[in-house]
Design a protein that fits this description.
The chain is mainly alpha-helical. It has helices spanning about 15-35, 50-70, 70-75, 80-95, 115-130, 140-160, 165, 175-180, 185-205, 205-225, 230-260, 260-270, 285-295, 305-310, 320-350, 360-380, 400-420, and strands spanning about 100, 105-110, 110-115. It has a three-stranded antiparallel beta sheet with strand order 1-2-3, covered by helices on one side. The chain is globular.
Length: about 425
């Protein structure tokens, strides 16, 4: 077995590192633009959002060095321990958690807040990679699929109790499972469920059930026309499809009207055009869209965005940071961010496919899937294609826990990638 080199930077993919620092640096510039004032513009002022973010950025450098210093095999060997610690940290929120912005998702240490859910994603990716990389593990077996689902949905459930929006990201792991051989049926089923959810809100239970009944009947008549024996051999499946679809639609209607909070229903209705409110529930979204569109092709210039400086968009330095990019840097700036993320995702996947070790490959797909979900949902939310769910834009949105969580997620893969040439 070859020995690993003592130089912690040997084999590091500097393209990934460069993209990381460009995103982080560009993100800080937009946080500065979204939160600075004429009276308080000193870069290192820790009483400001941009000052605190700069401190987290500086502290991320020793974190990166520590991640690269540790032997790559360590992350695989102790993946289960990391996952257990993350579960315990999420459980601890029920007793020791502090509520911020309506979500009891934080530990408070003096003036510093720590959000364990940001780190749980990386540890879940490690645990799933460890499970799937076992030579004896067969994902085609139902019992093994259940094991994978437990690893994915246990932290998601604990997070959803406090912050349902953040738990959505865990659906990204189905891309990983699909890459490792899980049938597409789960993704198709999930997509169908989302479609039925939206259609139920738009058209109501009665009309949707009638429409679905008619659609299935047309399909049934077509199949019977092609083969008279079709109904004889498939009537159980057809009946089950009717019943399950009807139960699901009724369940969605009940949950939507009796389980979701009013503000959550309002967000869906604004998104789907059922509520045109732009002053109350739809205010943030409307202001974000107007702010982005006001930037035009080339933007108004750094610190020259009048809507950003006027604080038209609430929480613009966090979930709505993309609107700052749109106003001050225009279409060129937003395209720059999108292209950088696409390059980052492509680079991670291409490097993951080169791994001889399954743990590294599967973890790499987990990293790419998580980043992709955050990227799509955040930007889709800001431009009005998806409901507001409070998901940060990786490396760009304000937040120390978010930055460190994504840094940990990415640089563990960077270490595994640098270590892939050695025998495990």
């Amino acid at each position: 077995m070859r020995q690993e080199r003592t130089n912690i930077f040997f084999g590091v993919d500097w393209v990934l590192v460069l993209i990381y620092f460009v995103l982080v640096g560009f993100g800080w510039m937009n946080i500065y633009a979204a939160s600075f004032t004429e009276e308080n513009s000193a870069i290192f002022d820790l009483s400001t959002k941009y000052g605190k973010q700069l401190l987290w950025i500086v502290l991320s450098i020793p974190l990166i060095i520590l991640i690269l210093f540790i032997n790559g095999k360590f992350y695989e060997r102790f993946a289960s321990i990391f996952y257990l610690v993350s579960i315990l940290s999420l459980l601890g929120l029920f007793v020791l958690g502090t509520e911020i912005n309506g979500a009891k998702s934080w530990y408070r240490f003096g003036s510093v807040g720590l959000q364990p859910s940001e780190f749980a994603k990386a540890f879940t990716a490690m645990a799933l990679a460890k499970l799937l990389s076992d030579r004896k593990y067969n994902l085609n077996l139902i019992k093994n699929q259940i094991k994978a689902f437990i690893i994915i949905f246990l932290p998601a459930l604990l997070i959803a109790i406090h912050d349902a929006g953040s738990a959505i990201v865990y659906l990204s792991f189905f891309f990983v499972l699909n890459r490792e051989g899980l049938t597409l049926a789960y993704i198709i089923l999930g997509t169908s469920a989302i479609a039925l959810f939206i259609l139920t809100i738009l058209f109501g239970v009665k009309y949707l059930i009638i429409f679905l009944f008619a659609l299935i009947s047309i399909y049934l008549f077509y199949q019977v026309y092609r083969d008279k024996r079709f109904l004889r051999f498939n009537w159980v499946k057809i009946f089950a499809t009717y019943v399950i679809s009807a139960i699901f639609i009724l369940g969605v209607d009940y949950s939507y009207n009796n389980v979701l909070n009013q503000y959550q229903r309002d967000r869906f209705e604004v998104l789907l055009g059922l509520n045109n409110d732009t002053r109350d529930v739809g205010y943030n979204l409307n202001q974000a869209i107007e702010t982005i569109s006001s930037g035009g092709g080339f933007g108004k210039g750094f610190l020259k965005g009048d809507r950003t400086q006027g604080k038209f968009v609430p929480e613009q330095h966090t979930d709505y940071i993309f609107s700052t990019v749109g106003e001050e840097w225009g279409f060129i700036g937003t395209s720059f961010v999108v292209i950088l993320f696409m390059l980052l995702l492509f680079r991670i996947i291409s490097r993951a496919e080169q791994h001889n070790n399954k743990f590294g490959r599967i973890y790499g797909y987990g990293v790419a899937s998580i980043l992709f979900f955050h990227f799509i949902i955040n930007i889709g939310m800001v431009i009005g294609l998806l409901p507001t769910v409070g998901i940060p834009l990786p490396f760009i949105s304000y937040g120390g826990s978010s930055l460190w969580g994504f840094t940990l997620l990415l640089f563990v893969f960077v270490k595994l990638d640098a270590h892939k040439s050695y025998d495990w």
